[in-house]
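Technical annex, item 7. During the second reporting period the consortium partners agreed on a shared format for inverse folding records so that results from different sites could be compared directly. Each record opens with the tokenized structure and is followed by the designed sequence. A conforming record, contributed by the partner at site C, is shown below for reference.
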């Protein structure tokens, strides 16, 4: 691994175009172009940003959210598909690694999916959130361990988790154990209130310290007009407010630029990989600070499938006795009655 390089990274806080996959995708492409002008090599977008995070499920009871859920189906992203092609082309044109959250439609199900594109446009990873949180369980299916993978990119070894997956320490350790150098966090933002942002900051800074890696974290943003689009009940608008923490954290747990907590913007910082060695010299959770003789992680990275194809074992034919081996049955003059 190269621990003597520097990567210029950006975390984007941005509003979607509600109810429009095409409109939100255009905002992603514009942001990539803006980041390219700032010589950014890695850009991270919020959780399920394309077409938009399902805020409706947080403020509507399940019995009333059928229309909104169906609308999300209609606008959802397919992989492969036109959205993937557009982002791939943009990543290649800008020579930029892109991490994008999407609502993925696969057949009759939706998933919270994270996509990592390399700087040549190659889709390096498609992973699904392992356990949707609270209201999200009415919207998305579950992911599997195949996505708990760190990938080699032009910017280094990248891993990604979405929102409250960060509260699963074993999921984080799975990425740490694969020598994650940059961790990409994605949250919805504009939810729950300031306490959500406070918790997010603690979580992101802790992972940076524990993993000895950089964290690039991105959250979404809702305008007052968008809150009205989601629900006309203004009493619910406080739970669609604040909760934003778009930031870049060093392996020492220090913010490398001013975090963005409201409005749209782009947090940009230089990631000096020598800081990874500096941190891990003191505490390497997967090296000299590990005790595999006492504690080990078992990870199942087998993709889920509703059908497993197997080759049936050869069935032995029943043994047939040749007629020549049969003993003749003696005949008698009288047969018993």
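Designed sequence (site C submission):
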């Amino acid at each position: 691994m190269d621990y003597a390089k520097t990567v210029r990274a950006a975390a984007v806080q941005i509003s979607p175009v509600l109810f429009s996959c095409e409109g939100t995708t255009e905002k992603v492409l514009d942001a990539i172009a803006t980041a390219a002008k700032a010589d950014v090599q890695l850009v991270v977008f919020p959780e399920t940003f394309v077409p938009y995070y399902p805020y409706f499920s947080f403020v509507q009871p399940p019995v009333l959210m059928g229309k909104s859920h169906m609308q999300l189906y209609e606008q959802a992203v397919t992989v492969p598909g036109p959205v993937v092609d557009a982002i791939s082309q943009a990543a290649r044109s800008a020579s930029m690694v892109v991490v994008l959250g999407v609502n993925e439609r696969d057949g009759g199900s939706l998933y919270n999916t994270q996509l990592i594109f390399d700087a040549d446009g190659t889709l390096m990873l498609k992973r699904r959130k392992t356990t949707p949180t609270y209201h999200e369980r009415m919207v998305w299916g579950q992911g599997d361990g195949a996505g708990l993978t760190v990938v080699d990119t032009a910017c280094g070894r990248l891993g990604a988790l979405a929102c409250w997956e960060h509260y699963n320490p074993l999921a984080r350790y799975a990425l740490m154990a694969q020598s994650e150098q940059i961790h990409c966090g994605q949250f919805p933002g504009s939810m729950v209130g300031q306490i959500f942002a406070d918790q997010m900051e603690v979580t992101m800074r802790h992972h940076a310290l524990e993993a000895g890696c950089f964290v690039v974290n991105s959250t979404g943003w809702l305008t007052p007009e968008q809150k009205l689009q989601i629900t006309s009940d203004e009493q619910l608008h406080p739970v669609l407010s604040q909760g934003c923490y778009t930031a870049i954290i060093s392996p020492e747990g220090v913010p490398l630029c001013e975090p963005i907590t409201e409005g749209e913007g782009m947090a940009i910082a230089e990631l000096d990989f020598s800081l990874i060695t500096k941190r891990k010299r003191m505490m390497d959770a997967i090296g000299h600070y590990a005790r595999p003789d006492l504690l080990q992680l078992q990870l199942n990275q087998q993709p889920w499938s509703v059908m497993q194809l197997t080759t049936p074992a050869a069935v032995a034919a029943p043994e047939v006795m040749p007629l020549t081996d049969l003993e003749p049955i003696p005949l008698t003059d009288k047969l018993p009655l």
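The chain has one domain: 6-282. The mean pLDDT is 94. All partners now use this format for quarterly exchanges.
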